[in-house]
Design brief:
The complex is a heterodimer of chains A (265) and B (314). By secondary structure, chain A is an alpha/beta fold. Chain A is built from 9 helices and 12 strands. A 6-stranded mixed sheet of chain A has the order 8-9-10-3-11-12, sandwiched between helices. Chain A has a 4-stranded antiparallel sheet with strand order 2-1-4-5, with helices on one face. Chain B has 15 helices and 2 strands. In chain B, strand 1 and strand 2 form a beta hairpin. Chain B is flat, with a radius of gyration of 29 Å. At the A-B interface, helix 2, helix 3, helix 5 and helix 6 of A face helix 9, helix 10, helix 13 and helix 15 of B.
Chain lengths: 265, 314
């Protein structure tokens, strides 16, 4: 690996009671890379993603995003846990798009997009609005500035949520099954926006069940199973020559009743 | 495969439909209901108005009498001040009740338990008579004389005692209403605010509070109306509110019903004002109204799913 990794995950472990949801995950993600994370339900994909923006903590291991040691501040060589303010400030630099669309329901689309820049970053309303207009045009919602979330389709809402996250000019974008809650015919419009973002060189970590997206837009694909990283490689490697029996089984199950024709292999 | 004996084929072709009877039946029923309602109201009006004890002139005279207007002022003051104490206290109680700290939560639960269990009238009498139990009140270091103290009756004149009693009682009910509003906010909205980098305080101010407000308004209006009427209880300790004044007058002129009608008219008017304010607030905060402003057809407002279906992909 030539350039140093942007996100470095080392032996990340997290348990809920006796249930180990993340088991010594070690993974590197380079700047500008789109890393897809796939795996069966309950394998720890979403938890891993939530660790990356400190929405949830972890028990042991270490996590570095950019130049930030997640969860701790170095004070004279000693790591002190973050204050809520430090955690909030870190999150403002990480874009997050959740599975269930959660635009602020009491605000219009453009108000949603400027909310973070104006009220978290302190950018002026005028500047924020101009940038928001660009972003909304980019996700194909130039004509929906003043619509309220309930007036939009699920796909439009999710694209607005992407614009809202981008408005913070994040160092990395995290997608947590961003299309899983959408009606099948709305999935493509959201994936297209994500693919364009990936092509623009945004660093992205994408938890997804959309294997075609993983194959086409993902630079590398990581497979999680029962909290363990069982596979990590390019699409050809993971889909074509899975090294782990569980990967092969998962892919077989996934494609057994899929809308899409079987892919590689 | 179950072969039903009813193998008669029901034709699908159009046949003339006559549903004129349906509309007519409803029409007849509506007229009957109106007729009964009008008759009952007219009868009630006649027996009240024709009653020799009904002194219309007294009602007219006392409705705007200075003494009644003064009482009205006290009632309004008590209502507004207790509503403010109740809302502020209720917010604190609601947040304490939702705290992660079990001790803080227990204190809130104990508060709710006490103030919702003891009748307001009893609480009113307790605060009013506090002077007979603790002659002196103040703040200072326990078990010493160091601190600021004063005679209870000076610190708690009757009106203040009433305000404290009603305000603290109101805080308990408001606390539960506010908590109901706060838990009605979707967890995803809070997560989105957090993921955007908002601190807890900012997320509360920018996202949680405005959304909770929407579901708080109807019970808030309800409770404020109850509060207004509950202030009439202070007449038991003679604090000179609308009810006390009405009682004072009929104690001397024996026109009980006319003066109770005077009081009722004013309570009705104040309740109407609260209802109107509630309606305006609800309209302002409701998403349905916002949608209305942007001309979404009624059907889609009632059933947003329909809108989503139509607007698939630009």
């Amino acid at each position: 690996m030539t350039s140093p990794a942007f996100i470095r995950i080392r032996d990340l472990t997290k348990s809920y009671g006796s249930n180990r949801v993340l088991d010594a995950i070690t993974l590197d993600i380079r700047e500008g890379e789109t890393r897809c994370i796939i795996g069966p339900s309950g394998s720890g994909k979403s938890t891993l993603l939530r660790c990356l923006n400190a929405l949830t903590g972890f028990d042991s291991g270490a996590l570095v995003v950019g130049s930030t040691r997640v969860g701790y501040t170095d004070r004279d060589g000693v790591l002190k846990p973050w204050t809520p303010r430090e955690a909030a400030s870190f999150r403002s630099r990480i874009g997050f798009v959740a599975q269930h669309v959660n635009l602020f329901s009491h605000r219009t689309v453009i108000e949603n997009v400027i909310e973070g820049p104006v009220h978290v970053l302190g950018i002026s309303d005028t500047v924020a609005r101009r940038r928001a207009a660009d972003l909304l045009a980019r996700v194909g919602l130039a004509d929906k500035h003043d619509s309220y979330p309930i007036q939009l389709s699920g796909g439009q809402q999710q694209r607005a949520a992407i614009a809202r996250a981008l408005a913070m000019e994040p160092q990395v974008m995290l997608f947590d099954e961003a299309t899983s809650a959408l009606d099948p015919e709305l999935v493509a419009e959201v994936l297209n926006v994500m693919a364009a973002l990936s092509a623009d060189g945004m660093t992205m970590v994408v938890v997804t069940h959309e294997m075609r997206f993983a194959q086409e837009a993902g630079d590398r694909i990581a497979v999680l199973d029962a909290g363990r990283l069982i596979e990590d490689g390019t699409a050809d490697e993971v889909f074509g020559r899975p090294r782990h029996a569980r990967t092969a089984e998962f892919l077989k199950d996934h494609f057994a009743f899929s809308r899409q024709p079987a892919l590689a292999g | 495969m179950p072969t039903s004996p009813a193998s008669t084929i029901i034709p699908l072709e159009d046949r003339p439909v006559d549903d004129s009877g349906r509309g007519r039946r409803r029409h007849v029923r509506d007229i009957a209901v109106w007729l009964v309602a009008v008759l009952i109201t007219a009868y009630a009006a006649v027996i009240v108005a024709a009653n020799p004890a009904m002194r219309w002139d007294s009602i007219g005279k006392f409705l705007t009498a200075p003494i009644i207007i003064q009482g009205l002022g006290v009632t309004i003051l008590l209502t507004v001040a207790s509503a403010i104490i109740g809302f502020a206290g209720g917010l604190v109680i609601a947040l304490m009740r939702m705290s992660a700290n079990p001790l803080v939560r227990t204190i809130a639960i104990a508060y709710l338990g006490f103030f919702r269990a003891v009748p307001l009238l009893v609480q009113l009498l307790i605060w009013y008579n506090l002077g007979t139990f603790f002659p002196r009140l103040g703040i200072g270091i326990p078990f010493t004389d160091i601190g600021l103290y004063g005679a209870t009756n000076d610190l708690l004149p009757p009106i203040t005692a009433c305000l404290v009693a009603i305000g603290l009682n109101q805080a308990a009910y408001m606390g539960e209403i506010i908590r109901g509003g706060l838990i009605s906010v979707q967890p995803g909205q809070i997560e989105a605010a957090t993921a955007l980098g908002m601190t807890r305080t900012k997320a509360f101010r920018r996202v949680i509070a405005p959304q909770a407000a929407r579901s708080i308004i109807p019970p808030l209006g309800n409770d404020t109306i109850n509060l207004l009427k509950a202030t009439s209880l202070v007449s038991i300790v003679g604090v000179g509110d609308l009810m006390t004044r009405a009682q004072g007058i009929y104690a001397t002129n024996y026109q009980v019903i006319p003066l109770l009608i005077v009081a009722s008219i004013w309570y009705l008017a104040l309740t109407a004002i609260i209802s109107i304010v509630q309606g305006l607030l609800e309209r302002r905060l409701s998403i349905a109204h916002i949608a209305d402003r942007n001309a979404i057809p009624l059907l889609d407002r009632l059933w947003p799913r329909a809108t989503k279906r139509q607007e698939v992909t630009p």
